[in-house]
Design a protein that fits this description.
The protein has 8 helices and 14 strands. It is an alpha/beta fold. The protein is globular, with a radius of gyration of 17 Å.
């Protein structure tokens, strides 16, 4: 597995674009860097290869590389950020992908009427099946109009809780057949559609607020935020090996392990 990350050199809470963020609750930079390094080492120890995109001054959320885009069928679909504060990241991500010889198949934001799409924060693959999150940052029209998506293998997942504003904060495929989720983040109709497509392992509210679903899966290894004992027990019963990482400094901004990574294969 190949994963993209970004060192949190400039990471901080400089604005408020989700309910978790509070500019009066600044991050501890030293602690944030230490937590990121532990996550980085844990991912490598689980067998993944990591690429690094250089951080950019003035773009503190570049550490959350999950939103850079979506790796889909060997190509990259770039994000079109809804929030102005993150729109400047796209040019840096695009330059990195192209330098790394990835095929980028869209040019977001050229037409301001283009639907918003926030990458692998809102679009998650379980095998070849795409679970398409929308409601807060990504627009449903993006998936419906994108000609490069396989529309026969898409399940639309509408988010309704602003604390779970991206699908990767409340849903995590473990493989093509199983996923963990916090069902109350979705509409009833979405819950039914998702349950029809994949076996779902429920996360309780307390651990959902610890971003239990924002985990990194590398084959049978799952890297979860610390403080999720019930999820850990459920995963271990199913044969997964669980690694817990402290990511409290990133939870302050509304992200955790998965948000700090983007899968590139």
């Amino acid at each position: 597995m190949r994963i993209l990350m970004c060192r949190p050199t400039y990471y901080d809470i400089e604005y408020e674009i989700n309910p978790w963020m509070n500019v009066r609750c600044k991050t501890n930079s030293k602690r944030a860097i230490e937590q990121w390094k532990v996550l980085y080492k844990t991912i490598k120890s689980c067998g993944a290869k990591i690429d690094l995109v250089p951080p950019a001054r003035g773009l503190p959320d570049m550490a959350f590389t999950a939103n850079a885009g979506l790796f889909y069928k060997g190509r990259v679909i770039l994000a079109h950020f809804k929030v102005i504060e993150r729109q400047g990241e796209v040019a840096y991500y695009q330059a990195w992908f192209e330098k790394a010889k990835f095929k980028v198949i869209n040019r977001p934001g050229i037409d301001q009427s283009d639907p918003f799409f926030e990458g692998a924060g809102d679009a998650l693959l379980a095998g070849k099946h795409l679970f398409a999150g929308y409601g807060f940052r990504t627009e449903k029209q993006f998936y419906q109009h994108a000609k490069y998506l396989d529309h026969e293998k898409i399940t639309y997942c509408e988010l309704i809780d602003p604390y779970f504003y991206h699908i990767d904060t409340c849903f995590c495929p473990l493989n093509a057949r199983q996923a963990i989720w916090y069902p109350h983040a979705f509409t009833k109709d979405s819950q039914k559609r998702m349950a029809h497509e994949i076996e779902l392992i429920e996360v309780n509210k307390i651990e959902a607020r610890r971003f239990a679903c924002n985990s990194v899966v590398i084959e049978k290894k799952v890297i979860v935020p610390s403080g999720c004992p019930h999820l850990t027990e459920n995963l271990e019963k199913r044969g997964f090996t669980v690694h817990a990482c402290h990511v409290d400094e990133y939870i302050k901004a509304g992200g955790a392990c998965k948000c700090l990574t983007m899968r590139l294969d």
